[in-house]
Design brief:
Blueprint lengths: L2 H6 L5 H40 L6 H33 L12
Length: about 100
């Protein structure tokens, strides 16, 4: 059984359980998609910064700082993507759940 289902089993009926699992999976997928979009936006900002460097009246220090900020954001996004993948693996990992004995 998937860990997320094992954690929620007994707290929700089967229909609600399946809906909750789907909502969690969808939320993770949306978070990953948003992070990937943010990473692309940072790439675009970096490209714009390179273009700015070719201008004659640009403050090079400001542009370099902006580029460093973009790279820092890309690293943070990469970390977030790694964490999301680890979380997904953790929640969807197959685990064995001991069966409850019937009380007499």
């Amino acid at each position: 059984m998937k860990r997320i289902m094992a954690l929620l089993k007994g707290k929700l009926d089967d229909v609600k359980l399946n809906n909750k699992v789907k909502r969690v999976e969808n939320a993770l997928a949306v978070a990953v998609t948003n992070a990937e979009s943010d990473k692309i936006a940072q790439d675009d900002k970096l490209a714009a910064c390179v273009q700015k460097l070719s201008e004659s009246d640009v403050n090079v220090n400001d542009v370099l700082k902006e580029m460093m900020d973009c790279i820092e954001q890309k690293h943070a996004i990469d970390n977030a993507l790694n964490y999301a993948e680890e979380l997904k693996k953790f929640l969807l990992e197959e685990v064995s759940v001991p069966k409850k004995e019937k009380e007499e």
